[in-house]
Design a protein that fits this description.
It is built from five helices and eleven strands. The chain has helices spanning 2-6, 50-61, 107-113, 155-167, 223-234; strands at 24-27, 30-33, 66-73, 117-124, 130-138, 143-150, 174-176, 182-184, 189-193, 214-219, 236-240. The strands form three sheets. The protein has a seven-stranded mixed sheet, with helices on both faces. Strands 1-2 form a two-stranded antiparallel ribbon. By secondary structure, it is an alpha/beta fold. The radius of gyration is 18 Å and the shape is globular. α4 crosses α5. It has one domain.
């Protein structure tokens, strides 16, 4: 499923003939929602995906790079409300054997083995919530995938960083592609991949601050039920939100 999501960044062709919702006024990448009622709560964004696709189309035409940022909380038998798995797979501090990262079908292992992706860098950290960061480049297109592995006991921080990235609160300046080329990093697709942490902890998305809609995915158990309202505030289009476990 995750690979299907990634292919949307390689080239985009879409039909824009469908009428827009009368409730939404689009100005460049900024979405203005007309208030229908007097309320003290911020009005959620309402938009279709054309905003995202238009920006990706423009990047492709101009030969610009596209970016995916993946947030992975390591599987953790002790600190997450999951059905326990094998102790090695469920060790939230073991990058090598963890179900969601270094095991046979983990994010890092999968992309490292894929002939379609080339690993540019892998950095590990002794302190903080993020234990490892890897950067991959697609071999046939200018698409980069940045993936962060979070400690299994740092679920809330992982969710906060995920929502902050979608909303534009947390931004990156540049990344090093490994060949001395520094490029501006602005994620087009932001992915959460792991246990549905919103079942265990409270983490609210801030309201969007950069005026840009972005594709978002939460590959987790019944994520649509838990994530959609937060994405609406942050400005994330719910591209993949499973409603099953």
């Amino acid at each position: 499923m995750f690979l299907i999501v990634c292919t949307s960044l390689f080239a985009c062709k879409h039909d824009t003939s469908e009428a827009k919702s009368p409730e939404t006024i689009v100005q460049s990448d900024t979405i203005i929602v007309e208030d229908q009622q007097d309320t003290t709560e911020p009005t959620p964004w309402r938009f279709d995906r054309d905003l995202v696709l238009d920006r990706i189309d423009q990047k492709v035409k101009e030969g610009e790079s596209r970016f995916i940022h993946v947030f992975v909380p390591l599987c953790d038998n002790e600190h997450q409300g999951i059905v326990p798995v094998n102790s090695r797979l469920g060790d939230g501090l073991n990058l090598t054997t963890n179900l969601y990262w270094g095991a046979g079908y983990g994010v890092k292992t999968h992309f490292k083995r894929s002939p379609k992706w080339r690993m540019i860098s892998s950095d590990t950290y002794d302190n903080g919530a993020v234990m490892e960061r890897v950067l991959f480049e697609h071999v046939d297109s200018a698409v980069y995938l940045l993936a962060d592995a979070y400690r299994g006991d740092s679920m809330r921080q992982c969710l906060v960083d995920y929502f902050n990235t979608i909303s534009g609160v947390h931004r990156y300046d540049t990344i090093d592609t490994g060949e001395g080329v520094i490029v501006a990093f602005e994620p087009d697709l932001i992915v959460f991949n792991g246990h549905n942490g919103l079942m265990d902890v409270r983490a609210e998305a801030p309201r969007n601050v950069d005026g840009k809609a972005k594709d978002a995915a939460a590959i987790a158990c019944v994520s649509g039920v838990y994530f959609n309202s937060e994405l609406s505030k942050a400005g994330g289009y719910p591209l993949v939100m499973p409603n099953i476990c």
